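Q: Structure for this?
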Amino acid sequence: MNIALIGFGNVGQGFAAILRDKANDLHAQYGFDGKIVAVATGSRGTLYDPKGLDINALLIAIETGDLSAYPESATLERNWIVQRIATESNADAVVEVSPTNLQTGQPALDICYAALDSGKHVVLANKGPVAVAYHDLMKRAQAANKLVRFEATVMAGTPSIRLALQVLAGCKITSAKGILNGTTNYILTQMEGGMAYGSALQQAQELGYAETDPSGDVDGWDAAGKAIILGAALFGKQWTLDDLDVTGISGISSDDVAAAKQAGERWKLIATVTPEGGVVRPVRLSLADPLAGVGGATNAITYASDLMGDVTLIGAGAGRKETGFAALADLLDIHRLT
Ligand SMILES: NC(=O)c1ccc[n+]([C@@H]2O[C@H](COP(=O)([O-])OP(=O)(O)OC[C@H]3O[C@@H](n4cnc5c(N)ncnc54)[C@H](OP(=O)(O)O)[C@@H]3O)[C@@H](O)[C@H]2O)c1
């Protein structure tokens, strides 16, 4: 499978390293041979070689800060814009791992459309296009007889999407309730240990969980984007951020956390998705709730279903390796189905 990587930051590099390190196992176990033919960045150049790029050389080049350090070859193209890579390259699949825009999905959304329209499968870690245009993406994919996969967009490589859509197929899922943002869960966990909100946030930033501008996490918008994706994938909805009821954790004080603790409860930022709508807000959970036991930056989701009752999945919600794995799992799924 020839792969074009749109974005070569944490996730793109993590994915490339997995592809390199597991090449033999993937071939032996699944007959899967993934070859990166193109890489695009926002400001560090693009590369396209229809014969395949050398992953080691790619990782060394990007470490220097720019893909121009990649060694020359007879078939290498350095000036193809992203749109051209999506349209004209010999990639079988485009892996979209560029930055998320939850308002417009762009510029990634147009890249996904271009890839599908020119006969390529699409795998996304970027939430933007999936949250903004889930149904259009699926329609375009169907028209092109190609597949769109987006496991990484909710809980990274922890298979929240696959669990709901494939493993629980045959069950009717009635709701999803999850801790879908690791930064806020880390902050709330630290607050329960006695740390003030500001210090916990600062620590989350120092550990690389929270962005320098942490508002997307602490105000609930990152979790809301994931709730929109779940609303579309589970219940066929196409909500926007305005359709959701979103409250972050910045109003939770140390006193609130202590009061909950005394009552045998715990604050969690919970995204709840049902066919009626999506809500993101801090909730006091009984310690008997499996989500209450999920501490630190870990994520979790409980699906309520008719045949299985509640099924809870707990695991990493971010990380270059964990999110890179999600892209690999999606490509293996596509490989199996085509
Ligand atoms: N990191 C995680 O744990 C995680 C988990 C789940 C989902 N995600 C999602 O996965 C995506 C990638 O995350 P990341 O952590 O890898 O981000 P990142 O480290 O910031 O990397 C983003 C990459 O995209 C490139 N880029 C920027 N604008 C572009 C454009 N217009 N066209 C093509 N490439 C462009 C950047 O290039 P420049 O550096 O040159 O700008 C960089 O190579 C995001 O949408 C994120 O929300 C991440």
